[in-house]
Amino acid sequence: MWKVREANVAKNDAGDGLGRRQFLGSAGALALGGLTGAKLLAQSQPAPVDLVLTNGKIHTMDSANRVVSQALIQNGRFTAVSNNVSVPRGNIRRIDLKGKTVIPGLIDAHNHIVLVGNRPGWHTPLEHVFTLPDAIAALKARSAEVPVGEFITTCGPVSAMQFMERRLPTLTELDAVNRPVYIQAAQGGTRTNTQGKAWLEAKGVTVGADGAIAGPALTAALLALRKEFLTPETRKRSAMDALKYYARLGITTHRDGGAFHSEALSGGLANENTYTMHNPFLALHRDGTMPARLRIEFLHQDSPTANPPLPTLGPRLRNAFPFFGDEWIKTGGIGEFTGGGVEGLRAIAKAGWRAEDHALSLAMVTNLIKDRETVNAEIPLSGLRWIISHVPEFPVDLANRMNAMGMGVLVGWGPLRTGTNVGPPYRMLMGHPIKKGYHSDGGDITIINPWVNFATIASGKNLAGQQILSDQTLTRQEVLWLATAANKWFIEEDDLGSIEIGNHGDLAVLDRDCFTVSDDDLKSTRSLLTVVGGRIVHEQLG
Length: 542
Ligand SMILES: [Zn+2]
Fold this sequence. Notes:
By secondary structure, the chain is an alpha/beta fold. The protein is 29% helix and 20% strand. Helix 8 packs across helix 9 and helix 10 packs parallel to helix 11 (341-351). Zinc ion is lined by residues 110, 112, 257, 336, 358, 441.
């Protein structure tokens, strides 16, 4: 299979010049690297490099769950994976892993990385810090590269619950950062500092004395920031920063679930122009500097009663190509909303496309399945790999009905949730034949950091330490499998998600053994070396 796809490569794979470009800039690196005091070694990298890794605990996630000590990557793909690799002559970089744990590059099979890559200002992810002093330190480190007068922003994948203090920083605390700061959390409110307050108030935005922004002022604030600070160049910078940040956490493939369409700039955190928001990523792709892979879903929200019917979905299905692109950027199907009701589903099935909707409750998933059964009776869905994501409440009979149609579920979406036994029922799903994979859904309503999500699935605890999953937790091996090999089915690519001969050379060398550390340590896991198709996109081996 992979040899067929080999013909479908673009200039990223031509080996022409990526190495001469500044592949790893400093933006965002400070935020992560600065905290550990570690030095980022690689600022540019010949690409792709041939690599041999030795002396590691390499969790292959192959069908036998083999753990081996050595792996060889040549021309971007694994060419040997065993305990006894014979290293060919030639220009090969040798890395002694000294016993470190290696996993396949993580696949987040549904998040909102494209939204994150289009944030106004100098978006500074804070998903790896768990105390307010560490958050302030990360923002201060970031300020060194932000021009005077420009905003440091953290919009979306951040929450009050992630901090030990269970709140966002106050105006006074944020004043330690000598730039305007704007933090709009998925959960826990919105805050600015004195410099930010002055700027926003000059734009007519109401800001509380404590720096809090709420109600209609929130939309006005984000809209003002977007109007002032978004240009094609800043979007491209943000897209690169976002992809690099998550590469440092081991994510090598993102499947993006889209945004709510706004033709003009909007004040909604989940809103973007869905026809242009991919441009910054396409620009990185043209430059040959993508530090991770992107898979694109098209979100549609046509009203079922629209006249003429399916005003946006219809043209999409007629004029676009599913699964078109190359190994770095590729289109997928329709999601995470299909729009257009049963008629929309019928059109997608007739066109032979993939479809995904999300379910927030038992009633919602029940209705989604009923609609799909209606369509399935006319046009068999098996083979189209339709997906329902989140599925918080999901009894086994619904799993049976979805599985009978050849559908799969994406699960994750947990560390900020509250309540008891809030699902999804991971343990039930692991014992069920239905296809399942991992997604964070992070970017606007929750966080993307995979390790925080994994810690919740493994421990059953949200970020505040409350038990939310009852007896539905998974082993580390199961969690890692969901985010690697299991996600092959959801991106419809067999040559990612496991360390096997012939697959793309995507992996992460971790700073700790994610299979044995405590649940609390698990959430702080980082990658020391992230490789995507043989290219070193992050290196902090020390
Ligand atoms: Zn989503």
